[in-house]
Specification:
single chain, 59% helix, 11 helices, elongated, 2 strands
C-alpha cells in the first residue's frame, strides 16, 4: 500500500479515537522511516497492517537515536506522557503542555520530504520531538525540576513579568528556545536565562530557580 494511503488509514482511525496517540505515532514513525529507508520485512508488515511496538526492538533504524526509540516505546507502554499533534505549536503552547507534564510530538503527514524549521524532513522533526520527550522523562528528578520550572514560567508569562524584556527580538528568540526547545537540568535553565537578563534585573528573576 502506498505510504500516503496507509498513513491516511491510520490517521482516520486516530481521529475516530480507535487508536491511541502512541499507536498513531508508531505507525507514522515506521511508515515514514520505511519510506526513506525501505526494508522488505517492514514493507510486508505495513502492507498486512501488522505494526507493533516489538518492531522497535527487532528492526534497525538508520539515523534514529536511541533516545527517540526509547521515548516512543515508553509512550506506547503508557509510562511516559507525550501528546501527538498535527500542528507545529507555538513556544507558548509547548510551554503550556509541558507545564502539565505532557511533551508535544508533531507529525506532519503532508509533504513529509520537505524540511521543517531546522530539521531535514517530517521524520527528523518528529524524532527530534521524541528526543525532547526522552530528556523530559528519563530522570524523575529532572522531570520534577522541569515541571516546576515550566509551571513558574507559564505563570509569570501570564502575569506579564517578561513583557518588557520580550520587546527585544533577540531576547524573545532565546526566551522561546528556553521554554519550548530545552529539556534539561534546572542549573542549565538558570545559567541560560541569567546570561540573557540585564545585570540590573537578575535579582528579580532569581525566584524562578529557588
Amino acid at each position: 500500500m502506498e505510504a500516503d494511503l496507509c498513513l491516511q488509514s491510520y490517521f482516520d482511525k486516530w481521529q475516530l479515537k480507535e487508536i491511541t496517540d502512541g499507536e498513531m505515532a508508531l505507525a507514522f514513525f515506521l511508515i515514514a522511516h520505511n519510506e526513506i529507508y525501505p526494508q522488505k520485512r517492514l514493507t510486508a508488515l505495513i502492507e498486512k497492517n501488522q505494526l507493533s511496538a516489538s518492531l522497535l526492538k527487532t528492526l534497525q533504524f538508520k539515523k534514529i537515536k536511541n533516545k527517540a526509540l526509547t521515548c516512543l516505546s515508553k509512550w506506547l507502554s503508557g509510562e511516559w506522557a507525550c501528546l501527538l499533534t498535527e500542528k507545529i505549536l507555538s513556544p507558548e503552547s509547548i510551554l503550556h503542555f509541558q507545564a502539565k507534564g505532557l511533551r508535544p510530538v508533531t507529525m506532519k503527514l503532508k509533504n513529509r520530504e520537505k524540511s521543517i524549521l531546522h530539521r531535514e524532513n517530517a521524520l527528523d522533526f518528529f524524532c527530534h520531538d521524541l528526543e525532547h520527550g526522552y530528556m523530559f522523562f528519563h530522570n524523575p528528578e529532572w522531570t520534577k525540576m522541569q515541571l516546576e520550572f515550566f509551571q513558574k514560567m507559564e505563570k509569570s508569562l501570564k502575569a506579564g513579568e517578561w513583557d518588557e524584556l520580550l520587546l527585544d527580538e533577540e531576547f524573545k528568540k532565546k526566551f522561546h528556545y528556553a521554554i519550548s526547545d530545552m529539556n534539561t537540568h534546572q542549573a542549565h535553565y538558570q545559567a541560560y536565562l541569567m546570561a540573557m537578563i540585564p545585570p540590573d534585573q537578575t535579582l528579580k528573576y532569581q525566584n524562578f530557580f529557588t
